[in-house]
């Protein structure tokens, strides 16, 4: 059976015509990448949830006002809104995000897990937390490129334009981010997968 | 008359930026072939590229979802403000 996924553009068009289910599909499709991008910058789950909500309120209003003209780049567009709202938040606070550790992982999270691969699940969850902490320790410009390229699906050209640098610089920042992540993984002796 | 065909060995060099570009599918077709050839034939480059792939996978695995009530709030806003 052929189950072809409806494109973002089609869902956007359906929502503009009044189908709210289309919006729900778009949120479900992209929420993890958008939320993780915000969370990695603000490092606070409540604040990240607030900015995520504000982002989609802006998305809804813009789509309904007929000002959306991104053509096939829905996720990148939403990510830019989220990024701008995050920057606005820190401007309001007159400080940029600092690197501090927050522990999203709680041992209580593991209590309901009683199946045979419980150990793998605990290890994988720990790895996920550690990877986020490693991203957190990257210099801001490298972290920004990781978020925009990896989670935002923006091309290096688009990142270069958004951050006012050359394509080579944005590529170089991603390269340094990967090298730094690799170094930190080695220093901390982390295994990247429990498989 | 002998037919001479000059066989040029495949260039087996690529920069780390090329590998990053390739990892994210942003290389042009010809460059992709060149990079893949280098990955296949250069052990050191292959190891670096496999590290990049592993890190990329770790980044994918570290995704987190917003609170379920946030999605519900957004949908409520969409319904309440829907034009008639």
Distance between the termini of chain A: 31 Å
Provide a count of the helices of chain B.
4
Order of helices and strands of chain B: HHHH
Low-confidence runs of chain A (pLDDT<50, min 5 residues)?
Answer: 97-116
Helix content of chain A: 55-70%
- Residue stretches of chain B low in confidence (pLDDT < 50, at least 5 long) are 1-10
N-to-C SSE string of chain A, H for helix and E for strand: HHHHHHHH
Shape of chain B: elongated
Question: Based on CA inertia axes, which overall geometry of chain A fits?
Answer: globular
Largest beta-sheet details of chain B: none
Mean pLDDT of chain B: 84
Helix content of chain B: 55-70%
Strand content of chain A: under 5%
The main β sheet of chain A shows up as: none
Count of distinct strands of chain A? 0
What does the oligomeric state look like here? heterodimer
Number of strands of chain B: 0
Overall SS class of chain B: mainly alpha
Describe the structure.
The complex is a heterodimer of chains A (195) and B (84). Chain A has 195 residues and is mainly α. Helices cover 67% and strands 0% of the residues of chain A. Chain A is globular. By secondary structure, chain B is an all-alpha fold. Chain B has helices at 16-23, 29-41, 43-61, 68-80. Chain B is elongated, with a radius of gyration of 24 Å. Classes of the chains: A mainly alpha (195), B mainly alpha (84). Chain A binds chain B through residues 18, 20, 23-24, 27-28, 31-33, 35-36, 39, 45, 48-49, 52-53, 56-57, 60-61, 64, 104, 124, 127-129, 131-132, 135, 146, 149-151, 155-156, 168, 171-172, 174-175, 178-179, 181-182, 185, 192-193, and chain B through 16-17, 19-21, 24, 26, 51-52, 54-67, 70-71, 73-75, 77-79, 81-83.
